[in-house]
Design a protein that fits this description.
about 210 residues; six-stranded mixed β-sheet; three-stranded antiparallel β-sheet
Length: about 210
């Protein structure tokens, strides 16, 4: 089963939204409906809905890959509370893809150090340090690598930003070997990558067993 993109994030959003509604109605029996109508969910709750939409949009883009590719969505990492948004498997290798919907915000590479100090790369989004996202993808790549148990298979970690403020020229980059791109460029790189004659069906079966549907 390929899984439903964004399903776990949407369930968490609905759980938080419903819990807030029940709490407000219980605390304000007469005015609860009015309070709910005039107020929004907190940002911490809306973020889950935004994440679900981002994963759903990314899944639609990945559906444009050739038939030689197979994709699974919203896979649980056993033993943790984390998941992998998308895993794509094709003749050139495997991609662990974290979809992010940061509308109108620009992802940027920030570099400290250089000649006299160690070079340190970080990810900035709208000027804020979000390198923790890179660390998350790196962890996903290692999990995928362990599940495949084959060092000859190319595995790429990707942060794919939807609706971001990308510059007209350039824009994509890598942070600590994690690719930071937008959907159209990601699909082009995936389909242009040289084949390594990966047994797609076997790799898919291994990964589907290692990472259940969330």
């Amino acid at each position: 089963m390929a899984g439903d993109a964004g399903a776990s994030a949407r369930r968490e959003y609905e759980r938080r939204r419903d819990a807030r509604e029940q709490r407000i109605r219980a605390e304000h029996p007469k005015l609860g409906g009015l309070i709910l109508a005039l107020s929004d969910d907190p940002q911490s709750t809306r973020a889950w809905e935004q994440g679900a939409v981002g994963e759903e949009l990314m899944a639609k883009r990945l559906a444009d890959l050739p038939d030689t590719f197979r994709v699974m969505h919203d896979r649980r990492i056993p033993g943790t509370r984390a998941n992998i948004d998308h895993i794509a498997i094709g003749p050139p290798g495997v991609w662990a893809i974290d979809a992010k919907r940061y509308k109108d915000k620009r992802p940027e590479l920030h570099v400290d150090g250089g000649i006299f100090r160690p070079r340190v790369e970080s990810l900035r989004i709208g000027g804020r340090d979000q390198t923790k996202l890179v660390d998350g993808v790196k962890s996903q790549v290692e999990r995928v690598r362990d599940a495949l148990a084959d060092d000859t298979i190319p595995i790429s970690g990707v942060l794919c930003f939807l609706e971001a403020d990308w510059p007209l020229l350039g824009g994509s980059f890598t942070v600590d070997a994690v690719h930071v791109v937008w959907p159209q460029l990601l699909l082009k790189r995936m389909t242009d990558a040289p084949d390594v004659n990966l047994d797609v069906s076997e790799a898919y079966a291994r990964l589907a067993e290692a990472f259940p549907v969330a």
